[in-house]
Design goal:
Elements lengths: L1 E3 L5 H12 L3 E3 H5 L9 H12 L5 E3 L6 H5 L4 E5 L3 H13 L18 H24 L4 E5 L2 H11 L5
Parallel strand pairs: 1-4, 2-3, 4-5
């Protein structure tokens, strides 16, 4: 399970991990939104998520903090991307002009945009999720929790997990 502040590199890492392992990859935004950023009925979205986590193995990339526990309780490994705000702001700006075409994390018609709502979400993300993370770590101590705060952290994780022959 991969979650964290938008612009932190979750989807890029998830795609690399998927390519390395062959484990099915699911991007939550692709299921949360229908065409043109219309939010899917939340109960329907929960049913979709439930069917994903019932699989034998999966990589799920995305936040949906209201249903974070649904994924956390079934995860073996939780990777939390917690890059600094400024880095995430830079990355979402960069993504407007240079999005990796291999990352299929949006429904049709959901073009990259930057609005005040997204900027505010990024700004307050860590404060909003910190108590929830602590609670989930206590509730599900068997799930290995990995926090990525920098490119150095990410390179270390990738070297451990994606070394050829591993």
């Amino acid at each position: 399970m991969i979650f964290g502040r938008p612009g932190g590199g979750k989807s890029t890492f998830a795609l690399r991990l998927h390519k390395h392992t062959g484990i099915p990859l699911y991007h939550l935004d692709k299921h949360f939104f229908e065409s043109n950023w219309v939010e899917r009925d939340y109960q329907e979205f929960l049913k979709i998520q439930q069917s994903l986590v019932e699989g034998t193995s999966w990589i799920i990339d995305g936040n949906s903090l209201r249903s974070l526990e649904m994924r956390y309780e079934r995860a073996d490994i939780v990777v939390y991307f917690n890059y600094p705000r400024w880095f995430c702001y830079w990355r979402i700006l960069k993504r407007l002009f240079n999005k990796n075409p291999e990352i299929k994390d949006r429904a049709d018609g959901c073009k990259e945009t930057i609005g005040f709502r997204l900027l505010r979400y990024i700004w307050g993300f860590e404060n909003r999720v910190l108590n929830q993370i602590r609670h989930l770590q206590e509730q599900y101590p068997d799930a290995k929790f990995i926090e990525i705060k920098s490119d150095k952290d990410l390179r270390k994780l990738e070297n451990e997990w994606m070394t050829p022959g591993v």
